[in-house]
Amino acid sequence: MHVADPHEHHTSKTVDQALTELRTHAVEMGGLVIDQVGSAVKALLERDGRLAEVVLSREPLVNEYESRLDRDSLTFMALHQPVANDLRTARAIARSGLELERVGDESKKIARFAAKAGAVAAHDPVVAVGRSLRHMATLSTAMLRSAVRALDEADPGLARQVLERDRELDEEFASALRQVMSFVMEDQQFLRATMDTVFALKGLERIGDHAKNIAEQVLYMVEGERPRKTKKSA
Amino acid sequence: MNELVNTPTDFKHRQVVPMQGDTSTNKVEKPSLSIVLEDRKSARANPPKAAAEKLNFWYGANQALKNIDLVIPENQVTALIGPSGCGKSTFLRCFNRMHDLQPDTRYEGAIHLRPDNVNLVGREVDPIEVRMRIGMVFQKPNPFPKTVFENVAYGLRLRGVSNRTELAERVEKALRGAAIWDEVKDRLNDSALALSGGQMQRLCIARALATQPEILLFDEPTSALDPIATAKIEELITELRQRVTVLIVTHNMQQAARVSDFTAFMYLGELVEVDATSKIFTNPSKKATEDYITGRYG
């Protein structure tokens, strides 16, 4: 197996340039999306409607990034017919863009909930699982950050760390669900808000999966072999 | 809670901080896409360097070019692709009047060279004069059986450059421009025929560059070379466009995709389609073009 060094130079500078542009583009998008997740959860926990609006207003920018990345990687493949590690790199970047766009969608949903949540109620599901929400947001953004960095630096070690951390996130999600259930049993008045809270938790859990998918793309990009699917804990 | 937002996302090679809607002050700013995502790469045509207008060409009774209208943008690479016999080489050779060397050929229409609008195929225009302004590189490297230095100096001498220092300077400049200087600087007085195929081809490019042509024509410049030598020539072509307008004929569609800004597809002596290369190779407008580049012909 040949482990590719992404910063090794080609005879053709145009190929180097195109790949660097694609990579930079994905990293920029990653930075934006990570902030979307953090801001959306912050807006929910602090009942900050304006911050939720910021997140919602930036959503089209995320989509724009994704479609550019998609188009540019397609053009790159059409014009340069990359093979071997160049091909895997172009594809990994395009697919990571897709994952990041979905992360953007999840943060949009959380921000929508935050925007309509209103003031904190006496008995509030968000408050009940506040600690879990915060923890899951921290975890999932950290995973995303590592995944995007692994993509940028073609670092398989970092990518493997992302795969391992997903379990932690899943466990936190399971424990948060138990908290929500006991909350509902005590008080069924806030059913709508409770459901939205569950969706927010689920969204964060999904964000971890997207980070994991990016990490798997990185492993395939660098090592040329698909990582064995890690079993997902419920 | 602040660890969630505005953590500068520190990636080794670059600092990425989200750029809009400063979340720390809760100010809502509408994102302006155009600032962040200015269009990175869209091939826009430079002003024209040459334009073929209703160009027809006959070998005897056989019409090889039919009503070609094609604009060649300045300082960009335009590639001509198409199956054998489609007229792409014939079209290329009109630019430096190569057909004049054959009996019983006839031009109709015009190729106007900007800015002075001289008609390259006009009967009143001297072919020698045309060739002074248009350089050409052929399929097979064809250096003169002379030294490396003399190959490049030849055209300059013809144009009356005789000062030795000036000759040496301009030869070096041309050799550097053709990315071959480092390989031949210590063997300028060796025979050019002792070079490798790829080096000979770059020497021929240097020879063409020495006289500072306005347009450089390439006729299948890499079909006799191995992949590495080909990659070097291709890299050179993409660099050359900063100095000269390039028109290249190639059988190799992938080569057209890699090196050109614009691609023209010709078939049976007609120009089927011309567009930005990225457009041609991702979504051509004509079915015939799509069939050809995807290999569905015949």
Please describe the structure with a list of short key phrases separated by commas or semicolons.
heterodimer, A: 234 residues, mainly alpha, Methane Monooxygenase Hydroxylase, Chain G, domain 1, 7 helices, 81% helix, B: 298 residues, alpha/beta, Rossmann fold, 6-stranded mixed beta sheet, 4-stranded antiparallel beta sheet, globular
Query: Percent of residues of chain B in beta strands?
Result: 15-25%
N-to-C span of chain B: 66 Å
User: Tell me, what's the shape of chain A?
Assistant: elongated
Write down the secondary-structure element order of chain B.
EEHEEEHEEHEHHHHEHEHEEHH
H/E element sequence of chain A: HHHHHHH
Helix content of chain A: over 70%
Average pLDDT taken over every residue of chain B: 85
Put simply, the count of helices of chain A is: 7
Measure the end-to-end span of chain A.
34 Å
Number of strands of chain A: 0
Count of helices of chain B? Answer: 11
Q: What's the β-strand tally of chain B?
A: 12
How do the strands line up in the largest sheet of chain B?
8-9-10-5-11-12
Measured as a percent range, the helix fraction of chain B is 25-40%
Q: Which of globular, elongated, flat, extended, rod-shaped describes the shape of chain B?
A: globular
Oligomer: heterodimer
**Unreliable spans of chain A:** none
